[in-house]
Amino acid sequence: MRLDRFLSNFPDFSRLDARLLLAAGRIRVDGRPVLDGRFEIREFHRVELDERLLQAGKPARYFMLYKPSSHVSATEHPEHPTVLDLLDEPDKHELHLGGRLDLTTTGLLLITNDGHWSRRLTLPGSKQPKVYHVETEQPIGTEYVETFARGLYFAFEDLTTLPAQLEILDTHSARLTLHEGRYHQVKRMFGHFRNRVVRLHRESIGPLKLDPHMTPGDYRSLTEAEVACF
Ligand code: URA
């Protein structure tokens, strides 16, 4: 953005004020006076009026990542590479995850620097459906469908899970839709039937599907329409 535009966007400066401040040499960019309003400022420029810092607002950033099973859903980890290591972006310390997946779980993960947006995704009341593709060690029984739809009691949290929809795809695989995100929820639900989950993959969160062109470890920015889903 041009420096004069940047200045006149501040509610306390008119366009004339901005021009006068520039002409008087009172505006500094990265410590140097800049007199020319056409100067292009970038996100990381430090703009000052006398001793006052006029920081440019950091643009919001939103990414979808295809989490591979090798990377942990965390911003730092002592043992494993983190999903942030997969991003070639500046200022990664400003980013956080909109929800988590277990280490070996693959699929859709959202990453942003917009705390309001990620809170809308992750708040327990938000009830954004999350769809998982599940593969199990033992055959999946038809009785699972009703049990998951009724809800399962989790003694540790003293709660009953919200009704979840199970679509059995074949003997050892299914698609499960959850409307909440409890700790290890999918594994614990199948664990109720002593059936170990051997592969777990998140396909979608709300209306947002993992981009079919992506492979594990890929990421891309969300489109405006995708950001507006939440
Ligand atoms: N449920 C699980 O058990 N693990 C995940 O990673 C996500 C949901």
TrEMBL record:
All residue ranges annotated as the RNA-binding S4 domain in the record: 1-58
- List cellular component terms (GO): cytosol
Quote the SUPFAM superfamilies the UniProt record gives: Alpha-L RNA-binding motif, Pseudouridine synthase
Record has Magnesium as a keyword: no
Classification via CDD domains = S4 (cd00165)
Record-listed E.C. numbers:
5.4.99.-
Name the Gene Ontology molecular function terms of this record.
Answer: 16S rRNA pseudouridine(516) synthase activity; RNA binding
Q: Which UniProt keywords apply?
A: Isomerase, RNA-binding
Provide the reaction this enzyme catalyses: uridine(516) in 16S rRNA = pseudouridine(516) in 16S rRNA
User: Matching Gene3D superfamilies, A to Z?
Assistant: Alpha-L RNA-binding motif, Pseudouridine synthase I, catalytic domain, N-terminal subdomain, RNA-binding S4 domain
**GO BP terms:** enzyme-directed rRNA pseudouridine synthesis
InterPro entries registered for this protein in UniProt: PsdUridine_s_RsuA/RluB/E/F_cat, PsdUridine_synth_cat_dom_sf, PsdUridine_synth_RsuA/RluA, PsdUridine_synth_RsuA/RluB/E/F, PsdUridine_synth_RsuA/RluB_CS, RsuA_PseudoU_synthase, S4_RNA-bd, S4_RNA-bd_sf
The task this protein performs is described as: Responsible for synthesis of pseudouridine from uracil-516 in 16S ribosomal RNA.
The family classification in the record reads: Belongs to the pseudouridine synthase RsuA family.
State the protein's name. Pseudouridine synthase
Q: Which gene encodes it?
A: rsuA
